[in-house]
Amino acid sequence: MWTERLLAATGREDQQLTLPWERVELALETPLPDDYKRLCEAFGHGTFCHAYELISVGHEESGDILSGWQVYLESVPEPGSEGAATSQYAPYAIYRPGRAGLIPWGAGEAGDEMFWLAGSNPPEAWAILVRNSDFGPGEWSRFDMPVSEFMGRLLLEPDFGPFGIAHAIPQPFFVPEG
């Protein structure tokens, strides 16, 4: 429903892309939410309103969910290691197969980082956690909704929390990349 609303609001046609989800889900050792996959297949990789990037599959490092996740794995301290308690991502860890943690799926021009809190819940129930570069350790915004609803509310609802841009962008748009 929200993907279709976003397509209508941005004036885009559904791209109906076939993306290599199996490769990504095998590497992550977990399925990804169907809602997210539908959004990526409809829009592809790109940016909403030059403000929020939808990280998809099969693009350069900055636009590929698997490559982005691997960068986080290499750069964020593991729980229990030196620096983990003061990491900007505390109290969370980056997702590792078999363990709960963060999987990146989006980014904002203002330094916002968007993750799922992947874990024991089915992927459709994963919470969205957003961290802004201005936030200190442990400062997160949590949203219990699918990615398409989150992006739709950011773009279409003027009173949607600190990340919403509907008040500043009268006509939402999407710029494909790659």
Helical proportion? Answer: 25-40%
| Annotation field: number of helices | 5
The helix/strand series, from N terminus to C terminus, equals HHHEEHEEEEHE
Euclidean distance between termini CA atoms: 26 Å
What structural class results from the helix and strand content? alpha+beta
Q: Main sheet?
A: 7 strands, antiparallel
Number of strands: 7
Q: Any idea what the shape is?
A: globular
Oligomer status = single chain
Q: What percent strand?
A: 15-25%
Uncertain regions: pLDDT < 50 for 5+ in a row? none
Mean pLDDT: 89
C-alpha Rg (nearest Å)? 16 Å
* Spatial arrangement of strands, main beta sheet: 6-5-4-3-2-1-7
Describe the structure.
This protein is of the alpha+beta class. It is built from 5 helices and 7 strands; from the N terminus they run H-H-H-E-E-H-E-E-E-E-H-E. The protein has helices at 2-10, 21-28, 34-43, 65-75, 147-156; strands at residues 46-48, 52-54, 101-108, 113-118, 127-131, 141-143, 174-176. Strand 3 and strand 4 (113-118) form a beta hairpin. Helix 1 runs parallel beside helix 5 (147-156). It is globular, with a radius of gyration of 16 Å.
Q: How is this fold's topology laid out?
A:
Layout: H1 2-10, H2 21-28, H3 34-43, E1 46-48, E2 52-54, H4 65-75, E3 101-108, E4 113-118, E5 127-131, E6 141-143, H5 147-156, E7 174-176
Antiparallel strand pairs: 1-2, 1-7, 2-3, 3-4, 4-5, 5-6
Helix pairs in contact: 1-5
